[in-house]
Amino acid sequence: MEAILETTFANLTLPNPIIIASSGLTDSVSKNRELEKAGAGALVLKSLFEEQISKNAASLLMGEEFQTANEHVLHYFKTNEVNNYLKLIRETKDNCRIPVIASVNCYKDDSWIEFACQIEMAGADALELNFFALHTELEKDAGFLDNACLRIARKVKDLLHIPVIVKMTKYFSHPLRLINELISLGISGVVLFNRFYYPDIDINRLQLTSGQVFSSYTDISDALRWTGIVSGKLPSASIAACTGIHDWESILKCILSGASAIQICSAVYQHGNEIIAQMKRSMEEWMHSMNFYSLNEFRGKLNYASIEDPSLYERVQFMRYFSNRD
Ligand SMILES: Cc1cc2nc3c(=O)[nH]c(=O)nc-3n(C[C@H](O)[C@H](O)[C@H](O)COP(=O)(O)O)c2cc1C
């Protein structure tokens, strides 16, 4: 019997669990067509960033005395950028058969809702809410980010008919509880986790610089830990693991820990689209050798609820490791 890679994530049926993560990889119809041809299971389009639109528009503004003209420029710029994004959705849908997931990141509540409604009307199969924020304000409570995420997710979910997915970062204060509440709102899937831009410091020029743009395969641990915990404690959660997935073995690890799908970005940037077919082939060979014929036969087999010692997922100290070292 042939191994079948088909899976369901966020109520979408995917021919295989490899989703191309939102990035420059998915910002044009031609790239998206090539990714489908290379064997991707679904695509998340490059995010529509409200902040980017505002920043680009601000560079065109004139002095304060030209307020009306400036408002006109801002409106024109925003409409143009949003229309380009809607065109990308429509054209990708016209050219690809795999699920096409749009992605937004905003800073104003109204913009999340406005963009989400337009995206649904343009024909996206699902919407990913890219909650990409870091809280550094002293006066805000610890749960501020979690509450903001719930508030936006509720508003968007109430209006949309397509599946809504929340792409999380690892900086939420209580991920398990947040995901539980997102599920009760009707959110169809979660992505664990997005990867932040990392700052670095140039000690010779005494300047703050950009750190590694791409992840490395050692970055997978957070996705594995939280996929294992969430899928074990919240069996109805539909999870796409993300960050640090660079080879087919990592995809299998994510599925064993309970993911329904995975998202990749760095590996495709670094090795090209060919890596998708290689990953699929190796997964099929492994499944065949282990007598697994569908992903469901082993999904979650090593999650928090299925292993003898689930505390392994919660361990944060290296006590035994260090006590054995000289
Ligand atoms: C160049 C680049 C651009 C990205 N742009 C977006 C984006 O627009 N929206 C988003 O949600 N994530 C974006 N990401 C994050 C990726 O979608 C992904 O979550 C992250 O790279 C971790 O996956 P990886 O380890 O496979 O790279 C970007 C990543 C890179 C490297």
Walk me through what this model shows.
The structure is a single chain. The chain has 326 residues and is of the alpha/beta class. It has a single domain (7-323), classed as Aldolase class I (TIM Barrel, Alpha-Beta Barrel), CATH 3.20.20.70. The chain contains twelve helices and 13 strands. It has an eight-stranded parallel barrel with strand order 3-4-6-7-8-9-12-13, surrounded by seven helices. It has a two-stranded antiparallel sheet with strand order 1-2. It has a two-stranded antiparallel ribbon with strand order 10-11. It is globular and about 70 Å long. The N and C termini lie far apart (51 Å). The site of flavin mononucleotide has 22 residues, from helix 9.
Task: Explain briefly what this protein structure is.
The protein contains 12 helices and 13 strands. The protein is of the alpha/beta class and 326 residues long.
In the predicted model, the low-confidence regions spanning at least 5 consecutive residues are none
Into which percent range does the helicity of residues fall? 40-55%
Number of domains: 1
> What is the third-level CATH name, the topology?
TIM Barrel
Strand content: 15-25%
Biggest sheet features: 8 strands, parallel, barrel
Count up the helices.
12
- The strand line-up of the biggest sheet is 3-4-6-7-8-9-12-13
Ligand identities: flavin mononucleotide
Using DSSP, what is the number of strands?
13
| CATH top level assignment | Alpha Beta
What order do the SSEs take from the amino end to the carboxyl end, as H and E? EEEHEEHHEHEHEHEEEHEHEHHHH
Q: SS-based structural class?
A: alpha/beta
Radius of gyration: 21 Å
Task: Provide mean pLDDT, rounded.
Answer: 93
Query: Alpha-carbon distance between the termini?
Result: 51 Å
CATH architecture: Alpha-Beta Barrel
| Oligomeric category | single chain
CATH superfamily: Aldolase class I
**Could you say which overall geometry the principal axes of the C-alpha atoms support?**
globular
